[in-house]
């Protein structure tokens, strides 16, 4: 995450708009198979996922192709349905890891916070979105204001409940991310449906979509990171 946010961090630090605080997961995993995202060990994540055929820790290659064909960025099938129909897609193996991860993150928030936003990329956005949604809901129930003022999700996935189920806009829960959000989604991303489903759980009036022509990757083009940086500046200026 430190590597893929390098350009954004430079953008935000240029005028002291914001700094990023990184939290590592607790579960060891195999390294990514995507060369541009390679980094030094240890390799950690917050949740452990059921393995599929094909590349370890990633969705089955045939499933990628099917999703790309049926549920792409401009697909006609509803994004939420595509996730439900992908029964083996990013399924959390051990649900006990979910509350453990949230307790750990809450401890960090209590000790090192307050924090004013969350940011997550790919599967990391599951944790980021879940943290943000849980905090907003807890604050709503206790009639207090959350310190979180925004969320940034790069090629993201929706939040999950304590049972590892996707939290979707049409699941009847009524849960929603009500602070401004920025969503970076690739038009050629085979799993763009996941990012769209996440975006659909966010307040429509304050969500921003930053699309790019690439796939499931974090774009480094200055113009794209400038748009994300401007989003943060706007949120900060609005208080």
Account of the protein in words:
This protein is of the alpha/beta class and 239 residues long. 35% of the residues lie in helices and 11% in strands. The protein contains 7 helices and 6 strands. The protein is globular, with a radius of gyration of 17 Å. The strands form 2 sheets. Strands 3-4-5-6 form a 4-stranded parallel sheet, sandwiched between helices. It has helices at residues 6-13, 61-70, 79-85, 97-112, 124-141, 192-199, 222-238; strands spanning 27-28, 44-45, 117-121, 150-154, 181-186, 207-212. Helix 1 packs across helix 7 and helix 3 (79-85) crosses helix 6.
Structure summary:
With 239 residues, this protein is of the alpha/beta class. It has helices at 6-13, 61-70, 79-85, 97-112, 124-141, 192-199, 222-238; strands spanning 27-28, 44-45, 117-121, 150-154, 181-186, 207-212.
Strand content: 5-15%
Topology order in helix (H) and strand (E) letters = HEEHHHEHEEHEH
How can the largest sheet be summarized? 4 strands, parallel
Can you count the beta strands?
A: 6
Q: Rg to the nearest angstrom?
A: 17 Å
Percent of residues in helices: 25-40%
The coarse overall form would be globular
Neighbour order of strands in the largest sheet: 3-4-5-6
Low-confidence stretches: 52-62, 71-76
Distance between the termini: 27 Å
